[in-house]
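testing teh design pipeline on a random one, pls ignore if ur not involved
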């Protein structure tokens, strides 16, 4: 109504503007005077106080070209007695009866306010419109109103500003200034009284429909209005945010800009000050019950932020809100994001941060983004908690997550990215922000857009409702599972930041666990998790609990994704709260590795080539990571992907829960068999040891479940695949390890040797040789099969070298050789118990038990099965000294001095052992000399143990000892007898080697005499002159017996008398 009237008055603008400014004083007086009637000695009536000398009015002519004349005529009308009432006039009686309650009819100002408030619901008659206009025009000429306003608000009005509407302008500025400086007011400064505040806002509200009614704004901006709004009819349209840009950001004078800014600040305190917004959203406010709570103070209920939050809640919940209202809301949300000064809380609580870091950035939302950048920074530059809360409230009110265009700084920075990477999405769609996050840290992203995006997402991530798609899909689940309240309501028990944590805890529940998220909600939760994995600051809980640890351990990790990796690397060192949240996030990643968006991007070529089947599954249960591990060494694997996969494998070693499949398959077995163990490597060893013991003891039933045993093999394979997951160390490096590390390595090697399939290096290097020689061999006997074919001409040199390494490892401890352990399980406790008593449970015996069994083999005291296995070990170690750990340990110096050339040979064929035997007299260390003598002793028991002698005498064995069964020194005795038999002619090389061995054995007998009767008997039985020695012993016994018989008793006879005494 007021807009149409203002448009029709094209003549006499100055007089009309002057009169309307007096109307504002009238309204200010009418509102304030009721509360302060006692100041003037007046008695308040049932409505606003009746002004004296009410004018005599007649209905004015319709506002057409004669409107100025009508206005002038109205202004010159004589005044009637004070008893005249608007309700008695025929022009407005019908509208008054229809719209206003009867108790207001006796008061003209009450009638005026009623018709003013209800004009949008029902159109007034033209004659009534003219009557009301003339009444206000004549009434405001009374000079008493300005004096009343000055008296009521005298604590606010500090100087004589009584011209051109400066009184009201001063009061409005004072009201804005008080809202921005609440905490900085001094004790001697009197605040604006509540009644006066309401009056100021009411005046601004009533003048919002016509540009001319705000006299100060009219005179400040009339030139700019003619320049920018000349085609706009005389409403308050230039106050609209769309038009305000032209006046404030181009050529407008400062005082016009200040007047417009003051008006907009008033709108932020009371949305009714915006005529267009109040008109467009009046019906929607009533439908959505945004003013239902009568306990709320009017100041809060009327705030622009409250209106926006209430109506945004309705939109997010799918309730109907008119398009016109949503359009107005969009403009004012953009207005809030562009100019921080329109938010009193920002000005009040962020003043220090603005002055220190963001001065001079007042346009296009730059100041807000500056504050957001500081807000997401580290602790040294963090904003005050009140400022942080004010920023969060502003983001919630403006809701830029629903439409990125609201954030002008983001829109301008990301325009090029949106046009290239997100052009398939409708402009203004909420998915634009999600699309930008998907392209974060990619080639399509520009640096300025990246910064603005992360600044905004930091605050959106702290309230799940600010992501409209997430809220739409999950509001039912949040109410059902997390007991949330309305969109703009909070709860101490479930703050906005905790709702998402509740949702993702239910996102990965199994059917057995129940209370799962709906399918659509789970998809959105996964999307948010993928986005948050890009930056730790986007995870509120992680940043809150790990702020100290981030500064302590990860201050130098500034590259993308490094902070989370750093926290995972230092998992054991983190404080308990941070360790818990990092552990939970890592556990989620193990189930859905796509949460780690950076890793997925790096590994995209490998996934597309080798893992596309499992990657296409909607539910990832660790299949993608398992596939990546299996194809780590493919040509498509790049360095970034390889580092990421290996890092994740290393992290999995810290806790068995970080391996989803292993956790699900073995959780019950771990709780039952390995309680109080969390590290995955220890859990794997514990379960593997249980499986091995049950197998060796031939238990009727395995204690580890079948599904766990299957998954256990997968984990063992992965552990053996990388030196950082399961180290393989050279003997000289073991001395540098701590006892605990040495113990752990031994336990891992024990598991690996029990199942060669777990030996990743062996299976990879010898893959072709296994196909060639061991296709029919059992999986657990692959290494045994390879050892048997080690010296084949078709054996690959690299594979042969790998087999030798495994033999060296096995010979360090009998427990690393499952075949030997099983064959000698009765002999080891019988002959080598003293060694077992001294050894630790998980420490290597350095070949002591095998050395003990070798000596018993020479003594021919082992069981047949054990003897066969020891013979194989003796034959192999005779060709390569490295397979004899005792010899290598005690003779390392002598080998380097006396046999360096032989030791440097690429192919070991027993040269080093022969060198030591030849240089036996030069060996000074007793331990080494003893080992060489033991080798000589062992060679007497079996000629195959002496490869040099066996090679030299191969033909003679075939000709002279073919019928002799190998073993127990029988073939060696055959050759010795042939050497002594002059009728037999041996090969010269064989004869020479045999003679050398006899000399060595003679020397050995001298320097190493028998330590007891058993050793003496063994030496006799293994001697080449055994028959001669036994004959001489028997002859001596017979001679002694005959001498006794022939000579009788040597002692003197004793007489019977002496016996009977």
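output:
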């Amino acid at each position: 109504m007021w807009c149409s009237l203002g448009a029709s008055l094209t003549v006499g603008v100055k007089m009309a503007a002057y009169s309307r400014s007096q109307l504002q004083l009238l309204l200010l007086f009418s509102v304030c005077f009721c509360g302060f009637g006692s100041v003037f000695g007046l008695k308040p009536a049932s409505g606003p106080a009746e002004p004296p000398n009410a004018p005599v009015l007649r209905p004015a002519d319709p506002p057409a070209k004669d409107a100025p004349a009508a206005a002038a005529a109205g202004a010159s009308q004589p005044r009637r007695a004070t008893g005249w009432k608007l309700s008695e006039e025929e022009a407005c009686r019908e509208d008054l009866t229809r719209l206003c309650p009867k108790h207001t009819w006796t008061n003209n100002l009450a009638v005026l306010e009623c018709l003013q408030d209800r004009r949008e619901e029902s159109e007034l008659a033209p004659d009534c419109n003219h009557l009301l206009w003339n009444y206000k025009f004549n009434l405001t000429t009374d000079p008493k109103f300005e004096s009343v306003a000055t008296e009521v608000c005298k604590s606010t009005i500090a100087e004589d500003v009584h011209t051109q509407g400066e009184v009201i302008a001063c009061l409005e500025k004072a009201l804005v200034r008080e809202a921005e400086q609440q905490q900085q007011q001094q004790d001697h400064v009197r605040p604006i009284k509540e009644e006066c505040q309401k009056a100021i806002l009411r005046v601004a509200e009533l003048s919002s429909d016509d540009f001319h009614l705000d006299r100060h704004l009219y005179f400040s901006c009339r030139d700019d209005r003619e320049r920018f709004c000349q085609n706009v009819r005389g409403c308050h349209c230039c106050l609209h945010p769309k038009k305000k840009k032209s006046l404030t950001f181009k050529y407008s004078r400062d005082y016009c800009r200040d007047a417009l800014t003051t008006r907009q600040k008033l709108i932020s305190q009371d949305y009714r000050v915006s005529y267009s917004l109040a008109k467009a959203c009046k019906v929607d406010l009533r439908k959505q019950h945004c003013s239902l709570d009568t306990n709320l103070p009017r100041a809060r209920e009327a705030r622009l932020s409250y209106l926006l939050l209430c109506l945004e809640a309705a939109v997010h919940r799918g309730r109907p809100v008119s398009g016109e209202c949503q359009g107005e809301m969009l403009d004012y949300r953009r207005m809030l994001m562009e100019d921080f000064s329109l938010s009193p809380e920002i000005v009040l609580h962020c003043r220090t941060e603005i002055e220190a870091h963001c001065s001079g950035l007042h346009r296009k939302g730059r100041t807000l983004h500056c504050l957001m950048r500081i807000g997401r920074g580290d602790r040294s530059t963090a904003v005050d908690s009140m400022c942080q809360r004010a920023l969060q409230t502003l983001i919630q009110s403006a809701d830029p997550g629903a439409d990125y265009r609201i954030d002008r700084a983001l829109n301008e920075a990301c325009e090029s990215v949106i046009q290239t990477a997100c052009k398939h999405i409708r402009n203004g769609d909420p998915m634009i922000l999600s699309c930008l996050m998907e392209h974060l840290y990619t080639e399509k992203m520009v640096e300025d857009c990246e910064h603005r995006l992360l600044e905004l997402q930091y605050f959106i991530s702290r309230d799940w409702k600010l992501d409209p798609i997430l809220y739409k899909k999950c509001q039912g689940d949040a109410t059902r599972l997390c007991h949330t309240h309305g969109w703009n309501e909070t709860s101490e028990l479930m703050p906005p930041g905790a709702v998402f944590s509740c949702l993702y805890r239910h996102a990965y529940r199994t059917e057995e666990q129940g209370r799962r998220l709906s399918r659509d909600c789970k998809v959105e939760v996964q999307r948010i998790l993928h986005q948050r994995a890009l930056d730790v600051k986007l995870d509120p809980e992680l940043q809150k609990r790990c702020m100290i640890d981030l500064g302590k351990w990860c201050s130098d990790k500034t590259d993308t994704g490094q902070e989370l990796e750093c926290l995972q690397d230092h998992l054991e060192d983190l404080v308990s709260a941070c360790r818990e949240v990092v552990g939970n996030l890592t556990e989620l990643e193990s189930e859905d590795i796509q949460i780690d968006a950076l890793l997925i991007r790096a590994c995209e070529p490998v996934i597309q080539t080798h893992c596309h089947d499992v990657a296409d599954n909607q539910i990832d249960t660790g299949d993608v990571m398992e596939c990546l591990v299996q194809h780590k060494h493919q040509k498509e694997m790049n360095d970034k992907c390889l580092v990421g996969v290996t890092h994740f494998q290393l992290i999995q070693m810290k806790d068995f829960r970080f391996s989803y499949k292993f956790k699900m398959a073995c959780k019950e077995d771990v709780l039952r068999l390995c309680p109080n163990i969390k590290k995955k490597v220890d859990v794997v060893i514990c379960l593997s040891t249980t499986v091995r013991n049950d197998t060796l003891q031939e238990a009727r039933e395995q204690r580890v479940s079948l599904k766990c045993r299957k998954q256990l093999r997968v984990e063992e394979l992965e552990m053996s695949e990388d030196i950082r997951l399961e180290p393989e160390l050279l003997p000289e490096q073991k001395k540098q390890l701590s006892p605990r590390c040495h113990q752990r390595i031994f336990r891992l090697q024990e598991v690996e040797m029990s199942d060669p399939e777990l030996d990743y290096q062996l299976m990879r290097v010898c893959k072709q040789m296994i196909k060639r020689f061991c296709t029919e061999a059992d999986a657990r006997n692959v290494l045994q099969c390879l050892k048997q074919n080690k010296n084949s001409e078709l054996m690959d040199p690299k594979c042969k070298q790998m087999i030798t390494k495994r033999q060296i490892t096995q010979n360090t401890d009998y427990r690393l050789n499952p075949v030997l352990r099983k064959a000698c399980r009765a002999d080891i406790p019988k002959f080598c118990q003293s060694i077992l008593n001294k050894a630790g449970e998980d420490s290597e015996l350095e070949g002591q038990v095998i050395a003990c069994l070798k000596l018993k083999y020479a003594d021919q005291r082992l069981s047949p099965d054990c003897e066969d296995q020891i013979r194989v070990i003796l034959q192999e170690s005779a060709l390569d000294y490295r397979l004899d750990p005792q010899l290598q340990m005690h003779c390392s110096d002598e080998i380097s001095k006396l046999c360096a050339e032989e030791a440097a040979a690429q192919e070991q064929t027993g040269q080093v052992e022969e060198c030591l035997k030849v240089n036996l007299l030069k060996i000074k260390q007793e331990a080494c000399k003893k080992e060489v003598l033991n080798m000589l002793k062992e060679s007497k028991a079996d000629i195959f143990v002496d490869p040099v002698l066996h090679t030299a005498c191969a033909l003679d064995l075939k000709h002279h000892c073919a019928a002799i069964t190998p073993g127990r020194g029988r073939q060696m005795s055959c050759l010795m007898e042939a050497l002594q038999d002059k009728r037999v002619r041996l090969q010269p090389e064989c004869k020479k080697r045999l003679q050398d061995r006899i000399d060595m054995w003679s020397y050995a007998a001298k320097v190493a005499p028998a330590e007891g009767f058993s050793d003496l008997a063994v030496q006799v039985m293994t001697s080449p002159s055994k028959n001669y020695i036994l004959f001489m012993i028997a002859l001596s016994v017979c001679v002694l017996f005959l001498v006794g018989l022939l000579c009788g008793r040597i002692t003197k006879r004793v007489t019977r008398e002496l016996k009977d005494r």
